[in-house]
Every structure is written in structure tokens, then in C-alpha cells.
């Protein structure tokens, strides 16, 4: 069902009930639908997708005004997301918490592969020191962002980011942030030995991003990057999309998947060579997604990621990477 079809149906319905509509689609008479409580109309809109909502808002001015209210989008957030997520992003996140000043004991992240000079490793020390479970409990650390800071750092990955945010209901911006797919393509990361021989940038029609990094054969495996825009506070499930080549993956030893926010709890996921071989058997040469775990962000953060495997002297081959994705979870 197209949005144009829905738009025309709404206009036809209103026209049949009132006798006429104006040139801009507004009701010229009195329509009994508009006498329904807003809560009932809200329930009706729960069954409309985003394209249909656009058509609905264009049917008449009262519908347009309804959809451009914070209460409308707050209801939609509570309807579509688990209660802890909805409560956090409609209310709790914007209340400045009381922080306890404390001295932190420096800790070192438990990495198998380290690069002390890299930004990821430097922020990993901050994460291990300030955002371990004990430090979070002692300092009463809570997620927080002011509405002004949220707007200043807002960027959509799947949708076009509006230019004039002040004219848009804040809860509408939040709703689109929640449903936005936060992805970073592997081809937009720094890939050691990306030279057309060891690792290759290839186009792939089944890729979500258009191009992928294909591992031909390499001894030192290192892919690093970061999301260019800050990610807002919240808990995010991290997943990597990948596939084997000809049903075989040879990544000897343990491969580390690291994700480190500049202000939050990091993720260290180690995948053994046997796990990769099982992925190849299960999915053959089809794309598959592996959940790596979760990160927790307490303040707007730059999020760094890395794939590392270089401690053993074995050559590695047989895998392609498409993208990393962050998904908000309770």
C-alpha cells in the first residue's frame, strides 16, 4: 500500500463525510472523525507505518497538528519499544544525576592484542578505570544528556538529518533516533595491508553498504575505525555482518572484536577459530550476523571499534566483513 494510496483514501473519506475539502486538503465542513478523542485517533495511527503517517498528516490540518506534538511521538515510543527503553528516552535520560566525586584506581583493559598509541586503547583504559561495575556503583554513574546537547550532536545514519531541528517535536527526533540503524561499513575503516592482494575492497550486491572488505590471506589482521558522529547514551547490542569464502574460514587462534565508547563500558569479544569454522559450515557462502555483546554509553560518545588477530604466526584467510551495527536494547 503506497502513501499516495493512503493519502487519497483519507481525503476520500473526509470528503464523503463532510461534503468537500479545500484545495490544500483541509476539511471545509465538520467531520465527526475530528470529534473523536485524540487517544482514539492515536490508536488508529499505531497501525500506520512512517509513509502512511505522512499521508495521514496531509489529509487535513487537525491530523497534521496531532502528529506534530511531542505527546504523539512519546506514545509511539512507548507503544513500539520495551518499557525501560521508552522510559529512558522519553524522560529519565534528560535529568541531571547527582555524581559522587571519587578517586579512580587505574586499570588496564584485558586485551590480547594491544596498540598503546591508538585512540581505542587510550579510551579503553578510561573505560576499564571509570566504567567498571565497581566504579559505576561507587560513583552512582547514570546515563545523561541535556536536550540541547542531544540536538547539537544528533545525526541519523539511515535517515536524512534535518537542518532546522528546532521546528521539529523533540520526541519525534528521539523516535527516529531509536529506529535508526547505526552502521559503519568495514570499507570506511582503516585496514592494515589493504593492498589488493592481502585484503581487498570489493563491491557486493548483497552487501548492506555496497562494498566489503575481503580477506584473501594475511598474517597480521587489524581493522580499526570509529563512528564519525557521537552516539547518544544508552545500551547497545553490537553485531558484525560477515560471510565465508567458498564455505571455509581460517582464522587461527582467537580473533578479538573490540568496541570502546569514549564515555562508557566497552566490549571485548573473542571468537575462536573453531567458531569461525562452524559459521562457515552453518552459513556456507551466505551473509550472517554475529552478536558480539553490548556496550553501555553514559554520555555522548565517540565509539571506536577494532578487529585484531596478530599474536600467532599463522596466515589467515576466507572471510569478508560488511559492517558493524549498534542496536538499542533495554
Keywords:
five-stranded antiparallel β-sheet; seven-stranded antiparallel β-sheet; PP2-like; Jelly Rolls; 12 strands; F-box-like_dom_sf; alpha+beta; F-box_dom; single chain; 330 residues
Q: What does the model show?
A:
There is one protein chain. By secondary structure, this protein is of the alpha+beta class. The protein has a domain at 124-328: Jelly Rolls (Sandwich). The protein has 11 helices and 12 strands. It has helices spanning 3-18, 38-45, 50-57, 61-67, 70-80, 83-90, 119-130, 133-139, 147-153, 170-179, 273-283, and strands spanning 182-185, 190-191, 199-203, 211-215, 221-226, 234-244, 254-261, 264-265, 267-272, 288-297, 303-309, 319-329. Strands 1, 3, 4, 6, 8, 10 and 12 form a 7-stranded antiparallel β-sheet that branches. A 5-stranded antiparallel β-sheet has the order 2-5-11-7-9. Helix 1 runs parallel beside helix 3 (50-57). It is globular and about 75 Å long. 32% of the residues are buried. InterPro entries: F-box-like_dom_sf, F-box_dom, PP2-like. It comes from Adineta ricciae. This is F-box domain-containing protein. Pfam families: F-box-like, PP2. Residues 30-76 form the F-box domain.
Amino acid at each position: 500500500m503506497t502513501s499516495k494510496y493512503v493519502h487519497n483514501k483519507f481525503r476520500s473519506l473526509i470528503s464523503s463525510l463532510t461534503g468537500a475539502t479545500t484545495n490544500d486538503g483541509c476539511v471545509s465542513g465538520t467531520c465527526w472523525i475530528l470529534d473523536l478523542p485524540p487517544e482514539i485517533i492515536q490508536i488508529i495511527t499505531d497501525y500506520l507505518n512512517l509513509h502512511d503517517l505522512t499521508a495521514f498528516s496531509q489529509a487535513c490540518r487537525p491530523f497534521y497538528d496531532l502528529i506534530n506534538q511531542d505527546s504523539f511521538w512519546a506514545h509511539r515510543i512507548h507503544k513500539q519499544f520495551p518499557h525501560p527503553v521508552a522510559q529512558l528516552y522519553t524522560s529519565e535520560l534528560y535529568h541531571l544525576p547527582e555524581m559522587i566525586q571519587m578517586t579512580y584506581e587505574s586499570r588496564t583493559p584485558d586485551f590480547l592484542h594491544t596498540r598503546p598509541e591508538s585512540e581505542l586503547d587510550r579510551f579503553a583504559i578510561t573505560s576499564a578505570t571509570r566504567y567498571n561495575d565497581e566504579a559505576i556503583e561507587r560513583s552512582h554513574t547514570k546515563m545523561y544528556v541535556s536536550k540541547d546537547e542531544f540536538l547539537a550532536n544528533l545525526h541519523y545514519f539511515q535517515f536524512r538529518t534535518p537542518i532546522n531541528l528546532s521546528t521539529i517535536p523533540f520526541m519525534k527526533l528521539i523516535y527516529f533516533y531509536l529506529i535508526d540503524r547505526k552502521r559503519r561499513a568495514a570499507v570506511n575503516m582503516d585496514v592494515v595491508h589493504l593492498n589488493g592482494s592481502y585484503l581487498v575492497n570489493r563491491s557486493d550486491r548483497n552487501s548492506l553498504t555496497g562494498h566489503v572488505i575481503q580477506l584473501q590471506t594475511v598474517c597480521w589482521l587489524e581493522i580499526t575505525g570509529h563512528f564519525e558522529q557521537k552516539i547518544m547514551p544508552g545500551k547497545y547490542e553490537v553485531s558484525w555482518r560477515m560471510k565465508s569464502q567458498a564455505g571455509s574460514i581460517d582464522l587461527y587462534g582467537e580473533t578479538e572484536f573490540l568496541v570502546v565508547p569514549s564515555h562508557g563500558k566497552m566490549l571485548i569479544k573473542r571468537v575462536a577459530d573453531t567458531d569461525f569454522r562452524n559459521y562457515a559450515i552453518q552459513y556456507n557462502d551466505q551473509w550472517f550476523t554475529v552478536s558480539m555483546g553490548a556496550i553501555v554509553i553514559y554520555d555522548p560518545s565517540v565509539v571506536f571499534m577494532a578487529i585484531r588477530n596478530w599474536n600467532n604466526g599463522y596466515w589467515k584467510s576466507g572471510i569478508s566483513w560488511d559492517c558493524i551495527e549498534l542496536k538499542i536494547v533495554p
